[in-house]
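Run 4-hydroxy-tetrahydrodipicolinate synthase through structure prediction, thanks.
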Amino acid sequence: MELQGRPADTTPMTTDDARPAAPFGRALCAMVTPFTASGALDLEGARRLAEHLVSRGCDGLVLSGTTGESSTTTDAEKAALVTAVREAVGDRAALVAGVGTADTRHTVELALAAEKAGADGVLVVAPYYSRPPQDALEAHFREVADASGLPVMLYDIPGRTGTRIEPDTLVRLAEHPRIVAVKDCSYDLLGTQKVLSRTDLAYYAGCDEQVLALYALGAAGCVSTVANVVPGLFPSVLGAFDAGDTGRAAVLQRRALPLVESMTVAGLPGTVTAKALLGALGLPAGPVRGPLRPADRETTTGLLAAYEELAALAGQSQE
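Sure, done. The structure for 4-hydroxy-tetrahydrodipicolinate synthase is below.
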């Protein structure tokens, strides 16, 4: 029996249907903040790591985000990090500086400092602990966006902040000329689609296991923790999708699952796992700052095995 229904819609896409512009690039790395063995900020290590990431496919870097240990770095360290990384990568990658705090005034101060240090944009997380209602949350973001000339990427990660940036709030905030993007760690696929369908906000998948899924729905790209150790992974996934080879894009995304799971879903914060792997690979990272603790040897061995398995598969696919 045939199902009766309307004929397939063959209307050409309009400009309103197109993917929003990617204001900060497409494949961004949520870069760790390298420290020396004594725990001091390692600016030379940050320069080397940034150069490594950009030369291998990342066209944007998020500094002092969750993975960058923003909660345990000082204001001066945050500004110095932006300046050092800008010196290393020049204009080859967009730099988005994490400036979110639990205090609106402090967040504004950090946004102004990031602008002065040379950032291209700011990442602003929902204020944590105080759990403001949506009207207060909206006012907070508007005040930060008004304070500097930098474009703003909102950071929706209720699992850490305790507060969701609700879809209707995002739709209203999209009217602000400097609020241009969202880093999406909401795990709300329905809500994300609502905002995508009603605004021109550039969505960036903030959870590595969702990169291809959100990109297929119209996201601009990703902000990846796993990119610290495999910077070319998601440029390959997104490139395959853009080329129309959606099957290959899916294969590449699935191949990365063991590494993604072990780095971001298996219990330890991504900062801990990324720094453990970077250290094992001889790249700048250093220790984590308390209250975080370093990965133990068994965990690091498992992470390295997942990394080597993915590297072997990538090598086979290029033969």
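The beta strands are 27-30, 60-63, 94-98, 121-125, 152-156, 179-184, 202-205, 221-224.
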